[in-house]
Design goal:
Mean pLDDT: 87
Number of helices: 2
Distance between the termini: 10 Å
Order of helices and strands: HEEEEEEEH
Largest sheet: 4 strands, mixed
Helix content: 10-25%
Radius of gyration: 13 Å
Number of strands: 7
Low-confidence stretches: none
Length: 101
């Protein structure tokens, strides 16, 4: 696994490694407007995760996920705040995105 100092560094490096799509959370799905795709928790696998903790600002707490659709056609990234800044999320998606080492 790679090591990155910042969220921006992780996102840039992952894009260079083929994770080119940007996904956003929509309660119970990850959506990508560029690929016109919606992925439920059963339709993607998390390939890598990177957790960043803000040393001086709790708003800097973030997790970057490199993910791939189960059919292998889509590869991209999803970035999400955690803690009190986390978005509303379904229980199924929360279980899928639970931090894994």
């Amino acid at each position: 696994m790679f090591a990155y100092d910042t969220v921006t560094e992780a996102l840039t490096a992952l894009k260079l490694r083929g994770f080119t799509l940007d996904f956003n959370l929509s309660f119970d799905q990850l959506i990508c407007d560029d690929a016109d795709a919606c992925l439920s928790p059963s339709e993607f696998e998390i390939v890598e995760t990177y957790r960043f903790e803000g040393d001086t600002n709790p708003a800097d707490q973030d997790v970057v996920y490199a993910l791939e659709s189960t059919d292998g056609k889509l590869k991209g990234v999803f970035s999400m705040a955690y803690g009190v800044y986390a978005d509303s999320i379904s229980p199924e998606m929360l279980a899928k995105l639970s931090f894994q080492k």
